[in-house]
Target: TetR family transcriptional regulator
Amino acid sequence: MSIQKQRKTPEKEAAPRRRLSPEARRDEIVDAAVTLFAETGFDGSTRDVARGAGITQPLLYRYFPNKESLIEAVYARVFLKSWDPAWDETLADRSLPVQERFQTFYEAYTDAIFQPVWLRLWHFASLRDAEVYGWYKEVVQEQILKPLVRERRAELGVNQGFQVSAAELEAPWLLHGGLLNYGLRMQVTGRADANARAGVIRQALDMYMLFSQNKLSLDK
Amino acid sequence: MSIQKQRKTPEKEAAPRRRLSPEARRDEIVDAAVTLFAETGFDGSTRDVARGAGITQPLLYRYFPNKESLIEAVYARVFLKSWDPAWDETLADRSLPVQERFQTFYEAYTDAIFQPVWLRLWHFASLRDAEVYGWYKEVVQEQILKPLVRERRAELGVNQGFQVSAAELEAPWLLHGGLLNYGLRMQVTGRADANARAGVIRQALDMYMLFSQNKLSLDK
DNA sequence: CAATAAAATTATCACACGATAAATAACTGG
DNA sequence: CCAGTTATTTATCGTGTGATAATTTTATTG
Model:
């Protein structure tokens, strides 16, 4: 729909540039593929990818044996780089309240993933093979939700060891899923307000803090 | 992947049946399209739809002017019938506590939509045009979330009139979105346990009841 | 039972797609 | 500045797709 026939200059059609290093060219192809696939899904054509990268379509096959391997390169580009190692430290910093730490984290995290490219590619990928979803589920659970439960326990003075049960993860999953769904809703309806986002995150954390306090005081 | 070359009987290939009423044939085509598109997305071919319906591909064009109109028929079939009018009464029955009413409702509702066909088609549709998503958002907000806020207010003895502000909808949206996300997670990972589902719904409603009580008592 | 309306099939078109082979042009080392 | 390497393009193949026209088959009815 928004892809056009490539008309860089109205007159001269010929593209002047050529002969990049293999690494640079490969990067450009993946860039173009990310952009296209985020719009159209993975059924976007290799010709359109090539057009986006400013090359001819057969050249693509010098860098990727087939379309599937290009798709895998797109996965790697978008999903693997979406976790910032600094976040682990943010979450573990016990000089601040849990709510404050996770507020900071979730604002940064959603800043990274609440973007059309990430959200749409993630959905397209989840629908086409369960592996990507399984990988994402694992990351969220181990890097975000389990730390949340453990840190909250510590804050409330309850020591149940390092293990986190599936039952304890349900509430965090509900809120994390709610935030993800919020991101999709904002993206589809076109609105994307950072202030409102911070408010929703705050409310989600409010709910968890209240719930966990209530739950743990009842268990005593 | 699971679509095969149609081999009803190993020997006799010819399909004996023909000549249905236009309404019946149309229904069969839409059925087949729903099944196929839920698997492959809307890029599933008209030939595979026809094969699933046991007819030849050009016949499809006697009932639908083009593929797009077939897709719209699929929307109508799957999404429009997904609301049971009896649910409105369930939600309004003030002889029961709000939590109990919405527990009953959400178990029935998720029973209807936590199915591969609904969830996958909904995601495919949301990704391909925002209109479907907008329609769904409206239904959820007006039929489920606003009633939830109003009924909860009444239960807590707070009267703020009929209007429900966007701010008040945030918490319900978080939990509803969390449930939707839970459905997707269960579907992708292959697990679908009705007991576990009821438990998650209960927990979501617990969280909302606790949160709304806390919020409204602070506002007083 | 022949005549007729229309449901269904056969045959086919034009085009877009993924992929391959051969030809060309740009950079590099001597 | 020439030769060799290789990045890039041109040309093309086979297949699958959405869609249309012409033909055949089925059921109904006078």
Notes: DSSP finds ten helices and no strands in chain A. The radius of gyration of chain A is 22 Å. Residues 1-13 of chain A have pLDDT under 50 and may be disordered.
